[in-house]
Specification:
single chain, Lambda Exonuclease, Chain A, five-stranded mixed β-sheet, three-stranded mixed β-sheet, 39% helix, binds iron/sulfur cluster
Length: 187
């Protein structure tokens, strides 16, 4: 049986493939030891969604498990507003939207389309600033781009040498756990 890739790991892979290894090694550990501050804040905001505390509107769906057979990915969406046909990904803080985060949202979009949901609008929502950032609906070319990225993910060889970028590492949530560098993260 073909293995499905978790949508949440696409962003980690773009940031640093080694972080996926660390994520898998340390998941389930003591929260204070394992998570850096941004991750704890993000986790808390997602728990509100997972526990369905966010909204009582009947046309809204939160924390739905989603998958795409075509792309071979699976995960959870954050918030779907049925009336507006809008899919939203909430982040605690959002100063810059990175390509990996856009791939995550595209992945959620294609999963939900394949599952039969109508989606006309996509957006990120920053909890800390109460700001919404609309994102274009992905085109067929965008879908090809995402498929190529997923192919690279599947073909990644973890034994190949790792290009360490110390500037990036100090902002990495796994910095204090990573054996590739000796500095501490900035959080
Ligand atoms: S600390 Fe650096 S090398 Fe280690 S996982 Fe993070 S980005 Fe990758």
């Amino acid at each position: 049986m073909e293995e499905y890739i978790l949508i949440s790991t696409l962003n980690d892979f773009i940031f640093c493939p080694y972080s996926i290894y660390l994520h898998n090694v340390y998941k389930g550990g003591e929260e204070d030891l394992v998570y850096a501050v941004p991750q704890v804040q993000g986790k808390a905001s997602h728990e509100a969604i997972d526990e369905k505390k966010y909204s009582s509107r009947k046309d809204e769906i939160t924390g739905l498990s989603i998958y795409s057979n075509e792309l071979g990915i699976m995960g959870k969406m954050d918030l779907y507003k049925g009336k507006e046909k809008q899919l939203i990904e909430r982040k605690y803080q959002l100063n810059t939207i990175y390509q990996g985060q856009i791939y995550q949202l595209w992945g959620q979009y294609f999963c939900m389309k394949e599952m039969g949901y109508e989606i006309d609008k996509l957006a990120f929502y920053a909890i800390s600033t109460n700001k919404t950032f609309p994102i274009d609906i992905p085109t067929e070319a965008n879908k090809d781009e995402l498929q190529n990225f997923i192919k690279r993910f599947k073909q990644y060889d973890p034994t190949q040498p790792l290009q360490v970028n110390s500037n990036k590492c100090t902002h990495c949530i796994y910095c204090n756990l990573c054996d590739k560098i000796e500095t501490e993260n900035v959080y």
